[in-house]
Design brief:
The chain is an all-alpha fold and 171 residues long. The chain has 7 helices and no strands.
Length: 171
Amino acid sequence: MRDFNRVIRYLAYTLELLVLFMLQETPGLLPHIYGVRPVLLLPAVAAIALFEEELPAMAFGIVGGLFCDFGLACPLGFHGAVLAALCFFVSIQSRAFLQVNLVTAILTGVWTIAVVVGAQWLFLYYFSYSMPAYAFTHHYVPKYFYTLLFMPLLYLLNRGLSQAVRAQDHS
């Protein structure tokens, strides 16, 4: 029964990532704020990593990262590699050091999303284009804060999903 519930949970996470990818890529669905749209997959994989063991968290980081690569027209594997490492680290951190709650989820979102957006700016913009400071303050910082707004919602969604499926394990 435990393996069946794990499969159900992993399918639900996969469906969540697919739906969030479709939502973030649908033109006009999410409003542009300061000319940017949020990247919903970043807080989603960070929230999933808070509740999963290291290897599944890393796998969902890779899946979410590949979706980001497709949607943001980035080199294939860039976000997959960054999010795999981050999700692996978040999972270890949440199991060893953190009591997972809304506050720690938001704090985790603050630094993980900052690392990903900072890596986007550094590797995908800074080394290739001019005026990196302007791009950082007018595009990447608004994207960071807009994406961070979704962390509490996605944490609560994944906490409910994790608790519902794990409750079936114990009954």
